[in-house]
Structures are given as C-alpha cells and as structure tokens.
Design brief:
Immunoglobulin-like; 22 strands; alpha+beta; 421 residues; globular; 2 domains; 6-stranded antiparallel β-sheet
Length: 421
C-alpha cells in the first residue's frame, strides 16, 4: 500500500449537516494482522447499480435505521443526506459548500462526496455510503488493513479485524461500523452491521417499527436533501417533548426547512417552547418560521434563501483552514461541554460557529444555543488563541460541531457527541 493511501486510511472524515453529526475512518489501525483473500462476488469495474433507491419518501429515509436495542440503546440520532442532488444546486449554494461536495471522500474505490446518491449516519457508530465505487479497490484496502473475511449477509460481504470494527460491501453500497469509542462491546460491530442490513432489506426490526415516536418524527419530516433526527431527546426545555428532527429541501432560490418535535400526546404540545427554540438555536437564520400542529407533532417551517444556507461540512480539507486543534470536555454533573483551543493558529472569534443540537440552559455556561463563539478571546483583534475556551450548556444527547467559516472556507475544526447521542 502506498503512503498516500495509508494517509487516507488514517484521516478523520467528518460527516456533518444541519445537526452536526460526525464520523471517522473505520480503517485506521495501529497494527497489521493476517488477512484472508477477497470473498464473494467482486466487480472489476466501477459499480453503477445501487440496491437501494435514492431517498424518495419517509419510508426510504428511515430504511437503514435499525432498532436501538441492536446497540443496547433506547434511542439514538441519525442523519441522511443526498450529496449528488445537492451538487445539482451548485449555482445557488454558497461556494464553500459546493467545494466541500467536490472533495475526495478519502475511502478506497470511491470518488468525491458529490458522487454519492446518499449518506446515512446512524447512532454515531454506523455510516452507509450509497453510490458508485470500485469494489475490488475497496476490498483490497480492507484486506491489506487487516480486515478478515466474515462471510456474507443479505447479499453483502462482511469484513472485520476485531469486535469493534466491521465493513459490509454490497453492490453500490458500503456499511462501515466503528464502535471503538464505546466501552461496552456486547453488541459487536459485525452484529450491528447485520442489524442495519436486516432493517434496510425488510428482514429485521427497524427503528420506526419498534418506536412510535421515531415513526411519527419520520412521517412528519418526509423527504429531503438533508434529514436529521434524534429520538428520546430534544433541544427544548420541557420533558413532554420526546423526539426532534429537521429536514432541508434545497432549491435554486429558496430552501424549505422544517423542524418537527414529537410530544407525548396532542394535549402536551407546546408551540411556545418550539418557537423559543427556533428563534434562539439559529437554524433559520433571520427568517421567522411558521408554527403549526399536527396531532402530537409541532412543526416549524420556513423558506430560507439557499445562498445563505449554513455549511454542508462533509470534508475537513481546505488550503486556507487555520491549523488549530480544539478539545471537547464533557461534564455530566454540570451539564456542560468545554471547548478549548489546544494549540496552533489563533482564529477570529467571528469565524468560529458552534452548531449542532442538544443545547440547554446551564448557569455555568457561556453559550446555551448555536451561534458564534461566545467564550474567551485572548488573541489579537478578538481572536481565539491557545488556552481560550467556551463552556456550552448541553443535554446528555448533545451533538456539537465547531465550524470555521472565514474567507471561502466552511469546514469542520472539531466535533463531539454526548453519552446518549
């Protein structure tokens, strides 16, 4: 394996959208192990036929969402987005967003992010790439990196080097599972991959079939170029809200944005709480959303100028991105996350955006909603320098994304998820 490919294997691949969901390379490995030869049928040319349709309805949006019990959880967050369709709106989207879509995906056999029909990010552990790729090239990289043949399941070839990592390779789709950040591995990566495949092919339990809140959320959101959701938690300051999600439909002039919040029942719906969240969390920019109620779901919808959309931060590579490191430290007792500049270039505070979900009111917090960096700035001209920090109020299911938006850049500098995300 050449040095360029080895570098790609080690590279972190942030995957983020409106909710700030992030992932990492499954191939990164600290040691080499004995591998087996390629298993199953292998295509020798770029695969063009997908076994799943591009997102067309709410049923398809949730097709990869397996039952939370498969990972010993009661709920989890998810993200679906359509890079190739987003790229069709290149003339309308901010330049930095289009450039990100054209970046290399950093995975052997795949082309750019914009070549993918869809990406699904599930529970922080699972990523599904749906689009054309060279199967032989990917399988060769897997075996070279120590991933052994794990048989087949639902038409996918399985590869795994240990209990915490697994890759399922199909015709037009690849499922990556990385559970290395989880201390409890009672559900192995291979088992999780099989659960995702079972759900996607209709041969196993799905999130929406076992959880009425998830079903209500997906039904309310419907189809979109970007769809995100969180079961079991919301950004609202009320225990009656049970699940929350968002959907973007990008157009040449405007983008239809929708937020859906699922409550316990129709009598518990709280439009004032949703309106308060919508005006402070910042997903609609300066546009005021329209509030409505459908049964036990409260909706906030708005048409936002496409040219002013927030970033689709699908890649962290950028020639003009500051070379700076940031750390995230969660304090469960205080309900906060402290983001600290750990060294490198100072960054203008106005160019640092904190996005995501799971924000909460906390007495010790500098920030309790999405927005521009609101913490310390010891550098010149209000810059965030080494040692500066900001304290964010969060719920245990938070998902935070630190974005740099200076110049023509719109890239991810760091991300973090709570223990219940």
């Amino acid at each position: 394996m050449d040095q360029t490919r080895r570098a790609l294997l080690r590279r972190t691949i942030p995957l983020a959208a409106t909710g700030g969901v992030a992932g990492c390379s499954t191939f990164s490995t600290s040691s080499s192990t004995e591998t087996s030869t390629t298993a199953g049928t292998a295509a020798t040319t770029r695969t063009e036929t997908a076994t799943r349709a591009t997102v067309t309805d709410s049923e398809t949006v949730g097709q990869w969402l397996f039952a939370p019990s498969a990972i010993d959880r009661d709920d989890y967050s998810f993200l679906t987005l359509q890079p190739s369709t987003l790229l069709e709106h290149a003339d309308a989207l901010p330049a930095a967003r289009v450039r990100n879509l054209r970046n290399d995906i950093g995975l052997a056999g795949f082309d750019t992010l914009g070549s993918l029909r869809s990406i699904h990010r599930i529970a922080g552990d699972v990523t599904v790439y749906d689009g054309p790729f060279e199967r032989d090239t990917l399988v060769t990289e897997l075996t070279d990196a120590g991933f052994s043949d794990g048989g087949t399941h639902r038409g996918f070839d399985l590869y795994s080097p240990d209990e915490k990592r697994a890759v399922a390779v199909g015709d037009g789709q690849v499922v990556l599972v990385d559970r290395r950040r989880r201390e409890d591995v009672s559900a192995t990566a291979s088992a999780v991959a099989k659960s995702a495949l079972d759900a996607a092919t209709g041969n196993g339990e799905s999130y929406r079939t076992v959880d009425a809140d998830c079903d209500a959320l997906l039904t309310a959101l419907g189809t979109g170029h970007v769809v995100i959701g969180q079961g079991g938690s919301t950004g609202l300051d009320t225990e009656a809200a049970l699940a929350q999600g968002g959907r973007w439909r990008v157009g040449s002039e405007t983008t239809q944005m929708k937020t859906a919040v699922v409550f316990e029942n129709s009598g518990a719906t709280d439009t004032d709480a949703v309106e308060s969240w919508a005006t402070t969390a910042g997903p609609y920019g300066e546009t005021t959303p329209t509030l409505s109620t459908d049964g036990r779901v409260v909706l906030a919808t708005a048409d936002v100028p496409t040219s002013s959309l927030g970033p689709f931060d699908l890649s962290s590579s950028s020639t003009d991105t500051p070379q700076a490191s940031f750390t995230f430290e969660y304090d469960g007792e205080a309900g906060t996350v402290t983001i600290t500049h750990g060294g490198g270039d100072p960054v203008p505070a106005g160019d640092l955006q904190i996005r995501g979900n799971g924000f909460a009111e906390r007495e010790s917090a500098d920030q309790t909603a999405a927005g521009t960096w609101g913490g310390e700035t010891s550098g010149e001209e209000n810059a965030v320098a080494s040692g500066d920090s900001v304290v964010i109020g969060v719920t245990p299911s938070y998902q935070l994304l630190l974005l740099y938006s200076g110049g023509d850049s719109g890239v991810t500098l760091g991300s973090d998820s709570g223990p219940e995300a």
